[in-house]
């Protein structure tokens, strides 16, 4: 399916196609065998943790998985980031981690720095998010206010196709955040981070299967239980 312009009269048809595809994938996720899901969660996370592109990352954004939404589990990845110290320049430093906090229903989401899982609180939908201030009452650093770029962003989604198209949950939170971060990176002449999606086998669709609009931002690569699928030139060079 071709990309459409914002004034295309077929825009409503694209949204309807997305709605139907979301419904189909949600049903498939709901029917997924719990044991198989657990096995795929472990395989996907191991594929991330064992990769050189993850090990070499210094600053990254990652989502906190929600089992109710049937997202690929990220608990092992987050634990690795928060618990393991890495040697760098003769000293011991942690990877710097930013995780999402939804601020309103107008697709506004921030990525805030955390250093422990104790920094997380459940929101009104029981999804874990960073508290806006730390235990000392200081505002958490927003990735948009950082003086250094992130090199990796791990993304959730309902489905992805092999050309990198991403089908979200219709809220637009990630597309809006990614657009803002890409604009900041260009303004500051930063190298763009790798956008890496985590997906179960059933969430990976054929090339071009997901309809898109100009506001949809594609991913650079997909991590499946069977390995990494690099899509863009940036991913092929770094992965």
Automatic annotation (TrEMBL):
One of its GO terms (cellular component) is mitochondrion. The keyword Transport does not apply. Keywords: ATP-binding, Magnesium, Metal-binding, Nucleotide-binding. Pfam families: 5-FTHF_cyc-lig (PF01812). GO terms for molecular function: 5-formyltetrahydrofolate cyclo-ligase activity; ATP binding; metal ion binding. It comes from the Eukaryota. ATP binds at residues 18-22, 166-174. Substrate binds at residues 64, 71. Its EC number is 6.3.3.2. One of its GO terms (biological process) is tetrahydrofolate interconversion. It is an enzyme of class 6 (ligase). It catalyses: (6S)-5-formyl-5,6,7,8-tetrahydrofolate + ATP = (6R)-5,10-methenyltetrahydrofolate + ADP + phosphate. The keyword Manganese does not apply. Its cofactor is Mg(2+). Belongs to the 5-formyltetrahydrofolate cyclo-ligase family. This is 5-formyltetrahydrofolate cyclo-ligase. It comes from Aquilegia coerulea (Rocky mountain columbine).
């Amino acid at each position: 399916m071709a990309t459409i312009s914002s004034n295309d009269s077929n825009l409503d048809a694209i949204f309807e196609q997305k709605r139907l595809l979301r419904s189909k994938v949600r049903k498939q996720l709901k029917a997924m065998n719990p044991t198989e899901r657990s096995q795929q969660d472990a395989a996907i996370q191991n594929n991330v943790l064992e990769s050189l592109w993850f090990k070499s990352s210094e600053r990254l954004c990652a989502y906190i998985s929600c089992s109710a939404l049937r997202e690929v589990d990220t608990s092992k990845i987050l634990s690795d980031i928060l618990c393991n110290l890495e040697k760098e320049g003769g000293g011991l430093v942690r990877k710097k981690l930013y995780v999402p906090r939804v601020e309103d229903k107008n697709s506004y989401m921030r990525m805030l720095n955390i250093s422990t899982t104790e920094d997380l609180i459940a929101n009104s939908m029981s999804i874990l998010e960073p508290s806006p201030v730390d235990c000392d009452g200081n505002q958490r650093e927003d990735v948009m206010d950082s003086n250094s770029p992130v090199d990796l962003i791990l993304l959730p989604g309902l489905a992805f196709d092999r050309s990198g198209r991403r089908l979200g949950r219709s809220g637009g939170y990630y597309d809006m955040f990614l657009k803002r971060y890409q604009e900041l990176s260009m303004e500051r002449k930063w190298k763009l981070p790798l956008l890496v999606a985590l997906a179960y086998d059933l969430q990976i669709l054929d090339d071009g299967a997901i309809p898109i609009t100009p506001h949809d931002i594609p991913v650079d690569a997909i991590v499946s239980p069977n390995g990494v699928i690099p899509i863009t030139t940036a991913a092929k060079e770094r992965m």
